[in-house]
Amino acid sequence: MLFVEDVDLTPNPHALKFILNERLLNIEKRQYSSKESAESDPFAKAIFEIEGIASVFYMDKFITIEKNPQASWGKIQRAFVNMLKNFDKTQIPAEREMVGTSAEDSNALLKQVNEILDRKVRPALAGDGGGLEVLGIEGHRIKIRYQGACGSCPSSISGTLMAIESLLRRDVDPAIEVIPA
Question: Which long-range contacts (CB under 8 A, 24 or more apart) does 90-93 make?
Fold first, then answer.
């Protein structure tokens, strides 16, 4: 049975990170910004059934829930804990095989960027209930999308973005520009 071991505040005032007793995913990260986008994932869909949910992000042993500004955490947390107790974990869709993307295989810059992000950035973002996806590279312009608590957090949109760009400029190429999706 799934249950919440701990709840962490995130830098995003509308998001909480729920640390679970069991691993949900080994490799993948799943982000849903609406009930409709979660239609094929019974787990995320069940979370969206709770009134006031704005987005759901989950990976490894945690779930980050973002609420609508007018919603109450008290009502959401109670409903979420009850949903977890009654949810059959086997209904979580199986992970897809992650065999390295052909884009990364053919783009040395993309591979180098992802290696640095995996080592130095993504663990810190996960610690705050979020994640980061590289959507693509055109020349030296890298397009990223924040996930989870980072998706609508004011500090990720400014400070974290500049820190990532500075890190990649220092460790990879001074011409790199990082832009959010």
Answer: 91/42, 91/43, 92/24, 92/25, 92/41, 92/42, 92/43, 93/40, 93/41, 93/42, 93/43
| Residue-level pLDDT at 169 | 95
The token pair that represents 91 in the structure block: 């209904």
Two structure tokens written together for 114: 């992802």
The amino acid at 158: S
Low-confidence ranges of the chain (pLDDT < 50): none
pLDDT score recorded for residue 102? 52
Of 3.30.300.130, 3.30.750.24, 3.40.190.10, 3.90.1150.10, which CATH number belongs to 102-180? 3.30.300.130
CATH topology of domain 4-91: Ribosomal Protein S8; Chain: A, domain 1 (3.30.1370)
Residue 149: the pLDDT is 87
C-alpha R_g of the chain = 17
- Residues 151 and 132: their CA atoms lie apart, in Å, by 9
